[in-house]
């Protein structure tokens, strides 16, 4: 028996998937806007392993940050004004679609290993996300929003996919409301284990 939690960053801004997945989708003619051509007033942040991020901190605005006391538990929390690199409408959607296709590839690698080890049909697979992405569907102060900003449906309505051919019906859709807090009780239920009394959520 085993349990594995696998976290992938994709699909998530900055959309900097490998090049073979960056140009798969094109809603508009011409070259896609790559991260290198995005302009900003301040320097980019860097994260080891994947380079430039899409978020940055504007120097002057960062000086306006405030500190919120945390009752001595972990020190004060600093809140600053965050800026976003500009996006380019449908070309940004093209990059986002490429990120989804890249994630499909990454998940397929896990499924291939489970198939090779003959454990696939005995494994419960759950796929979800902590948030979705705005892709210009809504505006704030007259500006189209990209990324996980606000509480519109594209941000809060995320997939929750469960697969286990021996105990779960194929293609069934649950119409009721579900939350991330329900995932652990569902796993325990599928494993035939009792839910702990103080555990939030339901199967």
UniProtKB/TrEMBL annotation:
Where in the numbering of this chain does the Sulfatase N-terminal domain appear?
Answer: 2-193
**Pfam families attached to this UniProt entry:** Sulfatase (PF00884)
- Tell me which Gene3D superfamilies the record gives: Alkaline Phosphatase, subunit A
Task: Write the protein's name.
Answer: Sulfatase N-terminal domain-containing protein
Natural source organism = marine sediment metagenome
């Amino acid at each position: 028996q085993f349990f594995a939690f696998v976290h992938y960053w994709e699909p998530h801004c900055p959309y900097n998937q490998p090049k073979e997945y960056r140009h798969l989708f094109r809603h508009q003619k011409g070259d896609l806007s790559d991260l290198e051509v995005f302009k900003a007033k301040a320097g980019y942040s860097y994260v080891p392993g994947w380079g430039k991020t899409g978020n940055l901190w504007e120097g002057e605005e960062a000086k306006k940050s405030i500190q919120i006391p945390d009752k001595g538990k972990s020190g004060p929390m600093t809140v600053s004004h965050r800026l976003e690199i500009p996006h380019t409408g449908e070309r940004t959607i093209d990059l986002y679609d490429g990120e989804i296709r890249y994630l499909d590839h990454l998940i397929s690698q896990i499924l291939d290993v489970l198939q090779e080890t003959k454990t696939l049909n005995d494994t419960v697979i759950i796929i979800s996300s902590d948030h979705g992405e705005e892709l210009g569907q809504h505006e704030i102060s007259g500006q189209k929003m990209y990324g996980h900003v606000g509480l519109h449906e594209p941000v809060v309505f995320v997939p929750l996919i469960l697969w286990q051919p021996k105990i779960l019906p194929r293609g069934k859709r649950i119409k009721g409301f579900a939350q991330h807090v329900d995932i652990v009780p569902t796993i325990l239920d599928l494993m035939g284990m009792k839910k702990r009394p103080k555990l939030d959520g339901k199967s």
